[in-house]
Amino acid sequence: MKSVFVTVGTTSFDELIATARSPPALQALQSRGYQKLVLQVGRGSLPQPSSSSAVAVEAFRFKDSLAEELQSADLVISHAGAGSCLETLEKGKPLIVVINDKLMDNHQLELAKQLHRDGCVLYCNCSTLVETLQSMDLSALKPFPPGQPEKFASFLDTVFGLQ
Question: Rg (Cα) of the chain, in Å, rounded?
Answer without folding.
Answer: 17
